[in-house]
């Protein structure tokens, strides 16, 4: 009886694919770009932050508070970028895309590794490399849809 009910229910639905395990079908590498760009911005702010005078307790506390906030945002946004990239890689791209983009897996794997590096380091070089990797993914994604969508950044 259960099998009959299950077959009736499942035969009435079409298969759907989407980034959020729901049938919205909305994918775009822009969310990864925005998160990576925020992580890059925080990296720059951390590197530009001036160390407080040790004798000035208020300035020292403000410095540590600001540094902590910048680090928190950098790490959160690098993780968001990683999550968004992994969704594109595992849910959007299909084996057929490998014909057009044979380096697709390597590109995504390296981008995910860069997200991790941006999280645990304060490296302007890695943050910029992540932006370049996402730019390449942007090209693959829109190319897979035969659309020419210009790359841009918000900053």
Question: How would you describe the overall organization of this protein?
Answer:
- The chain is mostly helical.
- The chain has helices at residues 2-11, 30-48, 57-92, 95-100, 104-120, 124-144.
- The chain is elongated and about 70 Å long.
Describe the structure in brief.
The chain has helices at 2-11, 30-48, 57-92, 95-100, 104-120, 124-144. It is an all-alpha fold and 155 residues long.
Helix content: over 70%
List the helices and strands in order: HHHHHH
Estimated share of beta-strand residues: under 5%
Mean pLDDT: 90
Q: What is the distance, rounded to the nearest whole angstrom, between the alpha carbons of the first and last residues? A: 60 Å
Low-confidence stretches: 13-18
Q: Largest beta sheet, briefly?
A: none
The coarse overall form would be elongated
Tally of strands: 0
Number of helices: 6
- CA-atom Rg in angstroms: 21 Å
Structural class: mainly alpha
List keywords for this structure.
mainly alpha; 155 residues; elongated; 6 helices
Write the layout of secondary structure elements.
Layout: H1 2-11, H2 30-48, H3 57-92, H4 95-100, H5 104-120, H6 124-144
Helix pairs in contact: 2-3, 2-6, 3-5, 5-6
């Amino acid at each position: 009886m259960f099998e009959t009910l299950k077959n009736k229910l499942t035969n009435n639905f079409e298969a759907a694919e989407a980034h959020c395990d729901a049938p919205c079908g909305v994918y775009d590498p822009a969310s990864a770009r925005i998160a990576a760009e925020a992580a890059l911005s925080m990296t720059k702010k951390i590197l530009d932050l001036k160390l407080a005078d040790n004798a000035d307790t208020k300035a020292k506390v403000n410095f540590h508070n600001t540094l902590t906030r910048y680090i928190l945002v950098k790490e959160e946004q690098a993780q968001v970028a990683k999550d968004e990239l992994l969704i594109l890689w595992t849910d959007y791209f299909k084996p057929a895309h490998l014909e057009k983009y044979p380096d697709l897996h390597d590109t995504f794997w390296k981008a995910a590794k860069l997200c991790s590096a941006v999280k645990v380091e304060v490296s302007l070089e890695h943050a910029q490399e992540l932006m370049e990797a996402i730019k390449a993914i942007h090209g693959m994604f829109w190319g897979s849809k035969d659309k020419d969508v210009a790359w841009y950044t918000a900053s």
